[in-house]
């Protein structure tokens, strides 16, 4: 059955449209499949490589002290405030010293009395010694009289009795003298003790440093161990940074480092590794590395966060590429090289690995262009056509 002419023309037009659409779609598919993939590239070139280990930590003072009283007493005066710089031995605060001052005066009076007692007892001892000497002479004389039949036995016995009494008196006065001297020593030590306690009312700075916190004001009663002030030494400020334990073999005291404070993310401050911790956190598998900061920002605070970058190696002029062009296959490093408009896979051997550059020991030559796709595009495959932006 033949179709009317107007239907035949309509079917022909529809077929032509479908054919045209198929051709266009095929062209697009072929172009998408075989068109060069845009990539980013860079040339392998000679340059410096600095290998660094990163850690995150806080700014700390090596020497920090909580200033607290040694006795319980009313706080009379605080002479410094937060952010004040102090010298070693400087008076920081003063406690009420009225009661302790009276105790020192009482003890001093007791010492003076003990010394006077010593003088009196010494005089008694000298008198007893003189009496004893006289009693010995009288006893010897009475003995001679009895031997020569001149004196009586009763006189001799009375002389002996007086001699014994004199010897006992001399012994008593010597014991009294020793006791009086011991009382002087006791009074002296008691006076030193009370004077030392009186000295506790003056709270002095143990070293030159900076007051970072003031915790108490005058008027209240303070107790031993209670914080009045917090003091740090500014001679050595460092960042105590947590570093992954896998970095331990490459670290050592004395290595140069740079410190980046989060308050000034665009600037690095010079530093140096001071010491390595000897205990790893069992949860995070990190350990502490103390990095001395040689220069501090204008505004800084103890406890502020910072990143440290510890230099573990440096090569001044080696073949390098950017780390972003490095790729891995089955655990081995490699790169895609621009080989006359096609991507060619090339395995490489790495040397030092820094944050900005990676050393290529073997596998590339200077001037070769390495490429990588950007964004969320599919990864390159060997032989794929590419065009470098």
Could you characterize the architecture of this molecule?
This protein is α+β, with helices and mostly antiparallel strands and 389 residues long. The chain folds into 4 domains: 35-50 and 317-388, conserved putative lor/sdh protein from methanococcus maripaludis s2 fold, CATH 2.40.420.20; 52-61 and 233-314, Efflux pump adaptor protein, beta barrel domain (Elongation Factor Tu (Ef-tu), domain 3, Beta Barrel), CATH 2.40.30; 67-94 and 203-231, OB fold (Dihydrolipoamide Acetyltransferase, E2P), CATH 2.40.50; 98-199, Helix Hairpins, CATH 1.10.287. The protein is built from 3 helices and 22 strands. It has helices at 5-34, 98-147, 153-199, and strands at residues 37-43, 45-61, 64-67, 73-78, 85-86, 91-95, 202-204, 209-214, 221-222, 229-232, 237-244, 256-261, 269-280, 286-293, 305-321, 327-329, 332-339, 342-347, 349-353, 358-362, 369-372, 386-388. The strands form 4 sheets. Strands 1, 16, 17, 18, 21 and 22 form a 6-stranded mixed beta sheet that branches. A hairpin with a 2-residue loop joins β16 (327-329) and β17 (332-339). The longest helix is centred in the first third of the chain and has 50 residues, at 98-147. The model is unreliable at 28-32 (pLDDT under 50).
């Amino acid at each position: 059955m033949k179709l009317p002419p107007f239907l035949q023309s309509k079917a022909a037009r529809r077929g032509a449209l479908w054919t045209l659409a198929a051709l266009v779609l095929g062209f697009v598919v072929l172009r998408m499949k075989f068109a060069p993939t845009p990539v980013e590239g860079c040339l392998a070139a000679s340059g410096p490589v600095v290998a660094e280990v990163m850690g995150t930590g806080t700014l700390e003072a090596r020497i920090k002290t909580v200033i607290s009283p040694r006795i319980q007493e009313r706080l009379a005066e605080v002479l410094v405030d937060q952010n004040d710089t102090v010298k070693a031995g400087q008076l920081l605060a003063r406690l009420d010293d009225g009661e302790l001052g009276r105790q020192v005066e009482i003890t001093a009076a007791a010492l003076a009395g003990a010394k006077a007692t010593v003088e009196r007892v010494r005089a008694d001892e000298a008198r007893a010694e003189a009496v004893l000497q006289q009693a010995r002479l009288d006893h010897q004389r009475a003995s001679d009289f009895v031997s020569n039949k001149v004196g009586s036995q009763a006189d001799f016995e009375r002389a002996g009795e007086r001699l014994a009494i004199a010897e006992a008196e001399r012994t008593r006065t010597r014991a009294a003298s020793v006791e009086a001297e011991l009382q002087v020593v006791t009074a002296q030590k008691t006076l030193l003790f009370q004077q030392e306690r009186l000295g506790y009312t003056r709270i002095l700075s143990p070293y030159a440093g900076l007051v970072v916190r003031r915790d108490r004001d005058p008027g209240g009663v303070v107790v031993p161990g209670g914080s009045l002030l917090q003091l740090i030494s500014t001679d050595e400020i460092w960042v105590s940074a947590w570093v992954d334990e896998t970095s331990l073999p490459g670290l050592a005291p004395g290595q140069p480092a740079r410190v980046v404070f989060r308050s000034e993310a665009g600037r690095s401050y010079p530093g140096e590794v001071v010491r390595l911790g000897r205990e790893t956190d069992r949860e995070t598998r990190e350990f502490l590395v103390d990095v001395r900061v040689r220069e501090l920002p204008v505004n800084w605070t103890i406890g502020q966060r910072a990143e440290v970058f510890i230099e573990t190696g440096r090569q001044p002029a080696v073949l390098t590429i950017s780390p972003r062009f490095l790729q891995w296959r089955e655990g081995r490093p490699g790169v895609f090289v621009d080989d006359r408009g096609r991507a060619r896979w090339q395995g490489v051997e790495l040397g030092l690995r820094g944050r900005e550059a990676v050393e290529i020991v073997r596998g590339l030559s200077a001037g070769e262009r390495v490429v990588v796709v950007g964004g969320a595009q599919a990864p390159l495959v060997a032989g794929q056509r590419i065009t470098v932006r």
